[in-house]
Amino acid sequence: MKNIFFKQVALFIFLIPFYATSQSSVQSSSDSLFIKQISDDIFQNGKTYEWLHQLTKGIGGRLAGSPQFAKAIDWGKKTFESIGVDKVYLQECMVPHWIRNGKDKAVITAVNNKPVITQLDVLALGNSLGTSSKGVNAEVFAVNNFEQLEANKEKIKGKIVFYNYHFNPTNISTFISYSDAGKYRWTGASRAAKYGALGVIVRSMSGATDNNPHTGGMEYNDSFPKIPAVAIGLQDADKLWNLTKSSSVKISMATHGKMLPDTIGANVIAELKGSEHPEEIISLGGHLDSWDINEGAHDDGAGVVQTMEVLRVLNALGYHPKHTIRFVLFANEETAGRGAEKYAAVAKEKKEKIIFAFESDAGGFTPRGFSFSVPPSSWTKLNTWKSLFEPYGGSTFTVGGGGADNEPLQEAFKTPVAELSPDSQRYFDIHHARSDVFENVNKRELLLGAVNITALIYLIDKYGL
Amino acid sequence: MKNIFFKQVALFIFLIPFYATSQSSVQSSSDSLFIKQISDDIFQNGKTYEWLHQLTKGIGGRLAGSPQFAKAIDWGKKTFESIGVDKVYLQECMVPHWIRNGKDKAVITAVNNKPVITQLDVLALGNSLGTSSKGVNAEVFAVNNFEQLEANKEKIKGKIVFYNYHFNPTNISTFISYSDAGKYRWTGASRAAKYGALGVIVRSMSGATDNNPHTGGMEYNDSFPKIPAVAIGLQDADKLWNLTKSSSVKISMATHGKMLPDTIGANVIAELKGSEHPEEIISLGGHLDSWDINEGAHDDGAGVVQTMEVLRVLNALGYHPKHTIRFVLFANEETAGRGAEKYAAVAKEKKEKIIFAFESDAGGFTPRGFSFSVPPSSWTKLNTWKSLFEPYGGSTFTVGGGGADNEPLQEAFKTPVAELSPDSQRYFDIHHARSDVFENVNKRELLLGAVNITALIYLIDKYGL
């Protein structure tokens, strides 16, 4: 009897997966065909790469408040209009206006009191204030981390602190290493100023093989003097660290950063009106601003043009969404996130029903999948679609992401959010560095990201979340 | 009763996966820990990138028969010796000795009989013979494919045939587009010579955005005249195609290719002797030769240094294999595959028991998984290991691959074979073009490939296939 039962069970077990497979393949065959159409159209007729060229080579670095950012807003609006859309508008918001204001310099001027001149490749951190016209001339105190800073707090006064914290090479997702190292850039200046430091030099948040410094946002703690702060390239960081091990090293730093009064910026928004649930909004976007010292090609030109491509291809295939699909180019992700705040504030004011918000802001690299912050029932539903993404490389679904520009929305309304997860191996080689330029974006990788994003938006529109 | 049965079945069904998971996670926790050690060691102490620099910048292009190829053999042997290994030896074989012998040129000399001078960027195809010293001066006959050639066979005589066959952008695996387009490069010259063509120009097998021509192997059919053959860059191909649509176009071609007598080359082989089954061999490798016009960084410098890295990291972690692991740097994959033939011939002669043969020859890009040609029972076993590769991006297992250098082995002995499947989006941008240089290999992507390969070799050594 046991054996018979076992046989029946075994049969049942073998049948279930087969039945499940055949069921889901019937259900999804029209979806897989439509996604193949999306992919073919993007690879044959896509404008993504051409738009990225316009945004990067035509406009360039687009720091919030800069003339280039104003140009980018205008370009975004006109490009949306050229694609064909139910509605395009600007959502104005005040943005901070930090300017670099000159060439950032750091020079080793003495080693063991012997005069030398060794230029270091540095970039002032975003939001940091410049040195006086005389610069900062002081001895370097090098530490690997905050623990070493605290242990030596009485030795910091009058020095330039050099944080040589290494980007951990062993994390396969480089975002983990970035999160880990980021505190030195964001808070390092004030933590050193607390103990009387005159300036800080931060090892770039990168594992690149070149010497490009990587800038990025920082914040002062108002309780302490607002000292200058620069990022240093990795080869120079190693050189400086080795020097400080055996010698006293003097550095002369000159930066020119200024915080001007807030100025007007805008989110650029386009909409395709839903045929069945026009009041329910699926939001997707990228951020239009970038750093000043590069072209913001991966960060986040890629997300901007992928967002536009979703609109283009849905139009090209004659797809009429059930829900309203909203395409958002956010202002000011890099220095303060004011575009995202404004977007959430308007959604609150207008009592909008945003059922899902998506962002692409992890670079235009080959897609691996998506990261979701959604309720359990949505997670279960999403996972039934995974096989549809397999042919396009985007079937790795993880939990926890959503994109920085969706955070205010998520905090205020628990909006289900997600972001594209491209392969992260190359991202921090170019992130916030001079090398984030058009030439370092691969056309097929960028397009394949757009394919996966469009497929996700299509499925959520068709089946809900 | 039916309901009770169903409940029991349901319980059973829910228990089985749980039990299976908990079983396999116990079984594999030591494996996942060891693979994490492999990964950490490769990312912290790996020599892969440094070796690639030596091979590409120190030696450069390594066409079979060239002085650089001889240097590469010497370098390979010495590098293996420096890692520490039970045995290193050269397996000599005769290789063809094709030389480019000068600068390949193609110039548009007349449009509708009006003289012009428009240089085109071309490279002679490997194995092709040069023009006479006067070059070939003739009108162009442009076709998109062989069907158009056949349909116009009476118009070909005395012309230069231009094959403008496009690399299909809609295949997500770019290898499919390459296989599809490859016949124009391999056989296009003789198919046109059959109808009296004096030369052929082949649109490069690539979807790149630049104008670099992509060379590669070709073969003459001895029944027809051996006419010169060049690959043309994509921008120049579009330009030429558009011109020929409305105008008669004359081109002057000059190439210098020569086939010298076969010369001596060698496979470079290292071995770690197995502790339990020394007579059973796990073989892995890449090919040491490359084209002459680049540094062969992805093709196949990456496979060479990843192979060496597997040896280095297993040694570094004190791993003693059960089976003999053999590391092979193959001679002459690009023009004739003589290294691979020799390897299989020696295996036959010595009655070697090669239980598995692996190759990395699809570029040093971020790994997606592996492609296997193995018996069904091995396939089932391999699939139980997939989750171990997930953290390292290499868990997509497909059927059908094995690497060109393992083909003679597979054909002779049905040896189970596999190859690394890196992301293919960028490969044919640089494949056989001047741009296949060290700078276009990303360190982390290259290393991550080595991590996945080592994990696979480790699991096969530990558990068999």
Tally the helices of chain A: 13
Largest sheet of chain A: 8 strands, mixed
* CATH fold-level topology of the largest domain in chain A: Aminopeptidase
Strand content of chain A: 15-25%
Question: What is the domain tally of chain A?
Answer: 2
Average pLDDT of chain A works out at 94
Low-confidence stretches of chain A: 1-26
User: Could you give the order of strands across the largest sheet of chain A?
Assistant: 1-10-12-11-13-16-14-15
Element pattern of chain A in H and E: HHHEEEEEHEHEEHEEEHEHEEHHEHEHH
Helix-and-strand structural type of chain A: alpha/beta
Q: Give the CA-CA distance, first to last residue of chain A.
A: 45 Å
Q: What would you give as the CATH superfamily of the largest domain in chain A? A: Zn peptidases
Sum up the structure in keywords.
homodimer; 465 residues; alpha/beta; Aminopeptidase; Glucose Oxidase, domain 1; 2 domains; eight-stranded mixed β-sheet; 13 helices; disordered N terminus
